[in-house]
Amino acid sequence: MGATSKNNRQFSKRFYIGIWLIITSLVVGKLTQAAFIIYFNNDLIRKLAVVIYLISWPPFLLGIAWAGMEYAVKYNRFFTIKYYVEKFKRR
Known about the structure:
- It is a single chain.
- Helix content is about 80%, strand content about 0%.
- By secondary structure, the chain is mostly helical.
- The longest helix is centred in the first third of the chain and has 26 residues, at about 15-40.
């Protein structure tokens, strides 16, 4: 059963890692924003929150590049007129 689920995977492992990077980065970013607001009077935590927030951006951008590129390549055909013309002709 494990082999069939691996063969049914639509995207590569890199795509799923990209999605994980995006989600993780967004969660870390929101947590640091909350810490920044909650502990606004604490200078150390405020500065640390800003640094962590900035560090969360590169994984986010890498995740967009990995997941976005593969998704765009896989589904780009749906955004062309040629695809729909050929599909209409086949009917």
